[in-house]
Amino acid sequence: MKIAIVHDELVRRGGAEQFTLILHKAFPEAPIYTSTYNIKKTYEAFASTNIRSTWLTNIAKNEKMLKRLFFPFGILAMKSHYLENYDIVLMSTTTSAKYVRVKPGTLIIAYCHYPFRLLWFPDSYIQGTKIRSIKSILLKILIGIFKKMDYKAAKKIDEFITNTPEIARIINTCYEPKNPVSVMYSSISCSNFYVESNPTEDYYLLISRVEPYKKVDIAIDAFNKMPNKKLIIAGKGSRKEHYQKTANSNIEFRENLSKEEVAKLYANCKAFIFPQQEDYGLTPIEANASGRPVVAYGRGGITYTTIPYTSDSKNSTAIYFEEQTPECLIKAIELVETLEFDPVFIRKHAEKFDESFFIENIRNFVNEKFNKWNKQ
Q1: Are residues 89 and 198 located together in one domain of the fold?
Q2: Is the pLDDT of residue 131 over 70?
Q3: Which residues form the domain of 26?
Q4: Strand, helix or coil at 35?
Q5: pLDDT: is 47 or 126 the higher one?
């Protein structure tokens, strides 16, 4: 059984890239095919894997350039891969992995983190950006064209897997897959995080790509109104420069942190801020693996991975707020400061999402589907 792993691109650090590293741990002999690769922009662990990228690597060396060239070069680059010597192609995808070419009879399994957001939910993706009318019209035309291409490429996938039942329903609506979508919770490496016996607890933490749909602005507006409370925002993105101009001095921005620096930030924060509605979200699990509670908008994937506070904080891992407004976030922060959480309990809950369980589950899933495929 010969397996190839395919991931959209490797020029950033995010949950999908972490997930691909875990796939590699499950199938260490499998090469990783991708459109473009820059080890300086993604996780160092990829340096010890067998990466096979395309000509796009010489052009799109970072996330910003890739976004500019994606239509059509990101798609064309992935189409230049022809995977003819594999029994199984295992994809980690949101955008372009589905465009690789494979020989007939290959079993294609795709762990779809979410349908391509720009094509299927463009309003949520581009909100907060200024697009002039002519550009807006052109963008809508292009989105319509590439949406049809995305749908067609998805039809060759034999088995879809995703993070939650909610995302499975969205995949069913967008792609109309040939087989039921399987749900398998994504995971983290809990060994990368630790519980600090005497945490500093003088700041709150938010780790995220700084894009409109991540709702970082809600946290900034909230902490602008709480000058005595410190917020550290770790991450980069298209809105970072704008948000830095609107943030007061109690809000600090960081980026390009090492794994050790990230773990230390988690372990010593008062709580982790998660203002967006995410399809899944690994960062709240990482915060919990560090024994720290999460203050989150109570919708989406967070509801599958945390235990919300109702009356017993010692058996909770998060506080939810019900509306995406600075006022609601402020109330949740005020509440978290009146409660006492149990770091040991929080850590043990996070360990349910450790990569060891996922690796066993994905191996069993692939073997089962391949055995059925061979009997057809």
Answers
A1: no
A2: no
A3: 3-187+355-375
A4: coil
A5: 47
